[in-house]
Amino acid sequence: MSGCGSSPSASPSDAGVGPAAGVAPADAGVADASSSVDGGSPPCPSPKTFPTAEEAAVAAMKEANPNSVRENREYGGWVHRNADGTFSYVPPVRGSIDGLDNIPDKGPSDVVWYHTHGAADPHYDSENFSGADGDKGYSRQNNATGYVATPSGAIKRYDPATDTEATLPDTAPP
Amino acid sequence: MLEILFVSLIHLIQHPETYHHKQVRVVGVASLKFEGKALYVSKEDFDHAITKNAVWLDVELNDNVKKNHGKYVMVEGVFDESKKGHLKLYSGSITDIKRIEVWEGRDKSKE
């Protein structure tokens, strides 16, 4: 995980540092997406912990997708492994209508990445991962599984090791 | 009058600091699709998604723009070395794009 909270405007509340630690269910309320940042240092990690990286990624996307669809902006970030073997996510950064050029670089404890695709648009294939020149290429370069929450609320996983996609049973309603 | 630098995309990628925030005109292969709006140095780079041999194109996708997907085009806009495009996969961006036009190759029938 890379350094966090060095933004001049960062504060315990707007950096996503919530009240409760401990294992939280994936659908628990979390810091709203206004805690995201538009660049600079990534925000401090959420104190919520999850037993698996996938559960952390799903929780992050459930949190971000409503704002992503409403604003038609992409959101995304990384999930990292904690010292105790649990997983947490950093609040997502807010990107553009069809890109995420401010995602923090992968840190040493980051394991998977997640993002959302904004609102449905007839010009965009936003229900799917982008290819080798986008989402899948990024997963391959970082050797990290990627997740996407789509405008319809579907959650998909891409595994670069096997070059396979799967749609998860869980959803991230817009 | 504002100077527009007609430069090689290769040189632009190799010397980004030289062209940062400058008005440029470059030729390359356009990728114009969701999360993949870019100008590649060559068809080979485009076909193999060598995104570091490309710059991000900050342009709104519509049918008129998308029709140029996969074609050699000339692009005119402002280069920004700090914006790396979707997931920072690219070697800078071209913003404030004024022109995207198909770049006609040599007429081989006349050679």
Structural features, described:
The complex is a heterodimer of chains A (174) and B (111). Chain A is α+β, with helices and mostly antiparallel strands. Chain A has one domain: Cytidine Deaminase, domain 2, CATH 3.40.140. Chain A has helices at 53-71, 135-142, and strands spanning 22-23, 48-49, 75-81, 87-89, 93-94, 110-116, 146-149, 154-159, 164-171. In chain A, the strands form two sheets. In chain A, strands 3, 4, 5, 6, 7, 8 and 9 form a seven-stranded mixed β-sheet that branches. In chain A, strands 1-2 form a two-stranded parallel ribbon. In chain A, β3 (75-81) and β4 (87-89) form a beta hairpin. Chain A is globular and about 45 Å long. Chain B is an alpha/beta fold and 111 residues long. Chain B has one domain (5-104): OB fold (Dihydrolipoamide Acetyltransferase, E2P) (Beta Barrel), CATH 2.40.50. Chain B is 17% helix and 37% strand. In chain B, β2 (23-33) and β3 (36-40) form a beta hairpin. The mean pLDDT of chain B is 95. The interface between A and B is medium-sized, with 19 and 24 residues.
Descriptors:
heterodimer, A: 174 residues, alpha+beta, 9 strands, 24% strand, B: 111 residues, alpha/beta, five-stranded mixed beta barrel, 6 strands
Question: Which secondary structure elements does this structure contain, and how are they paired or packed?
Answer:
The complex is a heterodimer of chains A (174) and B (111).
Chain A: E1 22-23, E2 48-49, H1 53-71, E3 75-81, E4 87-89, E5 93-94, E6 110-116, H2 135-142, E7 146-149, E8 154-159, E9 164-171
Parallel strand pairs in A: 1-2, 6-7
Antiparallel strand pairs in A: 3-4, 3-5, 3-6, 7-8, 8-9
Chain B: E1 5-6, H1 9-14, H2 16-19, E2 23-33, E3 36-40, H3 43-47, E4 54-57, H4 63-66, E5 72-80, E6 93-102
Parallel strand pairs in B: 1-2, 4-6
Antiparallel strand pairs in B: 2-3, 2-5, 3-4, 5-6
